[in-house]
Amino acid sequence: MFSFILRRAVTSFFVLVAATVLMFILAVNSGDPFHDLIELQSADRESRIAQRTAALHLDQPVAVRYLLWLQEVGRCMIPGGAECTLGLNRAGSPVIDQLQTAIGSTFRLVVVATLVAIVLGVAVGLVTALRQYSTFDYSITFISFLLFSMPLFWLSTLLKQYLAIDLNTWLADPQMSYLGIAAVGLIVGLVGAVAVGGDRNRRLRVFAIVAVATSVTFYLLLISNWFKTPGLGPIGLFITAFGLALGITALLAGFRRRRIVYAALATAAVGFISYLVTQPLMQDPNWGIIAGLAVLTLLVSLGIGHFVGGPYAKQTRNLTAVIGLAIGFFVFIDALLGAYPSLARKNGGRPIPTTGSSTPNLQGTFWEINLDYALYLVLPTIAIMLISFATYTRYTRASMLEVMNQDYVRTARAKGLSERSVVVKHAFRNAMIPITTLMAFDFAGVLGGAVITEAVFGWSGMGRMFTDGLNDVDPNVIMAFFLVTGVAAVTFNMLADIAYAFLDPRISLN
Q: CA of 218: how far to CAs of 4, 170, 193, 243, in Å?
């Protein structure tokens, strides 16, 4: 493993150096760096030209300018050395400051969307593969092709109109007629019947149950004024904790081994009690406290799995860790939603913004500030997620269908293993190998920013930084963008190769 990583690191270094040489030559020859000063009539024209010449080393040959840029990169790699600037931009400011701002904005914009797209896309693709040629499979196939071919700028515009402007207007006075509530229930019931599948009687039962449950729940939310004061509360978190415990256990382990079930229920109970105990600490925390609580949750969950799991301790530890972190996530969401009423008063009662990345000059608690960030992420996250969701769904479905026809899957069934064990422990693991490659490229591309999305929603991230650098003929800005994306590309591809060996023991890194 170490020799493989070392070889890849050395090879990647020389590939990056060669790529930066080519990119630098293209960047410096992409236009005239003085195009905005040529026709300037002010008295400071010559001084501004001299200042830009000094900042970008325009009086030096291209080879010397590249070596000077490479020297700036080297300073950033030596800890405790000279100040890291990555060179100066055309205004004479360090590029590193502009890069740090852009990276932070891009991470908030697209990383969450990519993770959500991966989880939902892989899960839905897995189900469609297991129910090939069903109504659900045809429906998801149609939706996936529709989303995959939809222009991102057009989808973003639709989201602005119907998910922001219209929804904000409705949230100002959330009311709905009985006919509207029934319509929502019927639509959700139809989706549930298609998703669950089965014979006609089963689909009708699912449709009726889901439609009635949705209508009643929506009615209760309206009369309780939940849309103005959202949150789960103790009762909601109690139901959520034990629902997660039973659902995750059914998916990953089944209910045949009582020790595992007891450990899952114990984790849910401890998680709910911890929620009640830590209420004072969660009033206005910081990210250090949140991270500490997350680590403590993981350790306690692993401890429950180890001591309650008995002979199945290894499997139980993995299960209880997932359950504990899932419960902690919903506790975090509940606290975040608790800040909604006060934040709504501060931002004018329109919770879903259509442009920008945060409310200017917002003063508030930890929860208000982070809820504000989250609400600004709603529209761009959905836009990016829907496009990526289509890709992951199709890739996962194709990969699972190929794996499910392999000999070792038929052998596992012949040995008497349950269908859940065959799918989760045997087929799905190997089906993830080609998806891993797609994930590696996706995460590397994430750091490059979403140029169209940033333009539509008014974000200043890596994509905007790159386009501005090209328009301004600012080589150091372009090279800073390329350096980050290039390092990310080779790093994530190496991580994908390492992941292959863990997913499939037949693959050797030697």
A: 55, 15, 19, 20
Question: Which residue, 374, 275, 366, is CA-closest to 324?
Answer: 275
Cα–Cα distance, 453 to 378 (Å, whole number): 12
Percent of the chain with pLDDT over 70: 95
Among the listed ranges 233-237, 271-275, 297-301, 359-363, which one has the minimum average pLDDT value?
359-363
Q: What is the DSSP letter of 256?
A: S
Q: Two tokens at 356?
A: 């920008």
Burial class (CB in 10 A: 0-12, 13-18, 19+), 363: exposed
Quick: pLDDT tens for 147-199: 888 888 888 888 888 888 888 888 888 888 889 999 999 999 998 888 777 77
C-alpha closest to that of 327 among 450, 239, 459: 239
Cβ(443)–Cβ(110) below 8 Å: no
| 212 membership: H or E segment, kind and range | helix 200-223
Residue 88: beta bridge partners?
94
Of 397, 378, 375, nearest to 386 by C-alpha is: 378
